[in-house]
Amino acid sequence: MEIQAFSELFPLFNTANPETLEWLLSVAVEHDYPGNRAVLMEDSWGNAVYFVVSGWVKVRRLSGESAVTLAILGRGDFFGEMAILDESPRSTDVVALSKVELLSISAQRFIQALFKDSQLHHRMLQLMVQRLRQANIRFQMRHQPPAVKLAKMLVTLAELYGQPMDKGAEIFNIPYQDLADVADITADETQKIVEKLVSKGWVEVDTTQQTMALINLKQLTHLAGRVQ
């Protein structure tokens, strides 16, 4: 991957020095995983940061025999940074939702880059604060109607990772249970809401290609903003 493409793909690196990017690319390791394959396991020690080149992954926490999805990440995002920053075992695991291409950078080298490049260090802090803000928004919406919460999550996924379309964006056809966990609603509610959105012509689901087209993003955004 070229330095410019690397910088454009990952917002974390769009203010980093070219020398930093060149060095990080030289030490990065490529990984390919099929769908439903575990990428990182809970309680393992953090030894690298991972960057999503293509595909979708879910971050989840295990609770006994069950697992709860905490976040869904796509192209251009990263994970694994918390375990290396606080030098503790990972508190979550990561599973590929689709075929996924990743780059990994070892903990030692990533920390070196943060110390050497103040712009990268600052950008890292900005993105971590952004994640905290997103978590706070989800907390504030906990009493909102299920349709509003699901619409908000779909719009956010489209904004962060969606492929642009004429009237909206295309995302991965994420399983109902994972959508439900992240939106903090039930799987049954999720299925009924998605079916309603399809019937209204706001969403199209292609189970063959495993895609969900948010073809009326304007209306979904309006629905997501109906805070009561």
UniProtKB/TrEMBL annotation:
<dbReference type="InterPro" id="IPR036388">
    <property type="entry name" value="WH-like_DNA-bd_sf"/>
</dbReference>
<dbReference type="InterPro" id="IPR014710">
    <property type="entry name" value="RmlC-like_jellyroll"/>
</dbReference>
<dbReference type="Pfam" id="PF00027">
    <property type="entry name" value="cNMP_binding"/>
</dbReference>
<feature type="domain" description="Cyclic nucleotide-binding">
    <location>
        <begin position="12"/>
        <end position="131"/>
    </location>
</feature>
<dbReference type="GO" id="GO:0003700">
    <property type="term" value="F:DNA-binding transcription factor activity"/>
</dbReference>
<dbReference type="InterPro" id="IPR000595">
    <property type="entry name" value="cNMP-bd_dom"/>
</dbReference>
<dbReference type="InterPro" id="IPR036390">
    <property type="entry name" value="WH_DNA-bd_sf"/>
</dbReference>
<dbReference type="GO" id="GO:0005829">
    <property type="term" value="C:cytosol"/>
</dbReference>
<dbReference type="InterPro" id="IPR018490">
    <property type="entry name" value="cNMP-bd_dom_sf"/>
</dbReference>
<dbReference type="InterPro" id="IPR050397">
    <property type="entry name" value="Env_Response_Regulators"/>
</dbReference>
<protein>
    <submittedName>
        <fullName>Crp/Fnr family transcriptional regulator</fullName>
    </submittedName>
</protein>
